[in-house]
């Protein structure tokens, strides 16, 4: 995350209320993410949107994203559909 993204995450601004219909898979992922982080569902969704925007920004500029599982030697390129 860039410094400006990190600092904007800490800013409190007027909240925008949005209604979202989650698939069963997304709902389960939200439960998992909130449970792992200890954050509320709202905070988890907010963070997920910020992270997704950051990753899309990198990809849109021609960058590549990699992840390495703890038991793997080599990183694997992430692909967004």
Descriptive overview:
By secondary structure, the protein is mainly alpha-helical. It has a domain of 43 residues. Helix 2 crosses helix 3. The longest helix has 20 residues. The model has no long low-confidence stretch (mean pLDDT 88).
State the distance separating the first and last CA atoms. Answer: 21 Å
Order of helices and strands: HHHEE
What's the β-strand tally?
2
Q: Biggest sheet: strands, sense, closure? A: 2 strands, antiparallel
Q: Roughly how many Å is the radius of gyration? A: 15 Å
What's the pLDDT, averaged over the residues? Answer: 88
How does the overall form come out from the CA principal axes? globular
Strand order of the largest sheet: 1-2
Query: What percent of the residues sit in helical stretches (DSSP H or I)?
Result: 40-55%
Model regions low in confidence, pLDDT < 50 over at least 5 residues: none
* Beta-strand content bin: under 5%
What's the tally of helices?
A: 3
Structural class by SSE content: mainly alpha
Question: Can you give me a brief rundown of this structure?
Answer:
By secondary structure, the chain is mostly helical. It has helices at residues 3-10, 24-37, 41-60; strands spanning 66-67, 76-77.
Give keywords.
81 residues, 3 helices, globular, 2 strands
Topology summary:
Layout: H1 3-10, H2 24-37, H3 41-60, E1 66-67, E2 76-77
Antiparallel strand pairs: 1-2
Helix pairs in contact: 2-3
């Amino acid at each position: 995350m860039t410094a400006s993204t990190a600092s904007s995450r800490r800013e409190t601004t007027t909240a925008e209320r949005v209604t979202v219909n989650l698939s069963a898979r997304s709902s389960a992922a939200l439960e998992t993410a909130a449970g792992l982080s200890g954050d509320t569902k709202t905070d988890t969704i907010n963070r997920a949107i910020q992270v997704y925007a950051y990753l899309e920004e990198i990809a849109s500029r021609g960058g590549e994203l990699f992840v390495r599982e703890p038991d793997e030697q080599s990183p694997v390129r992430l692909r967004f559909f």
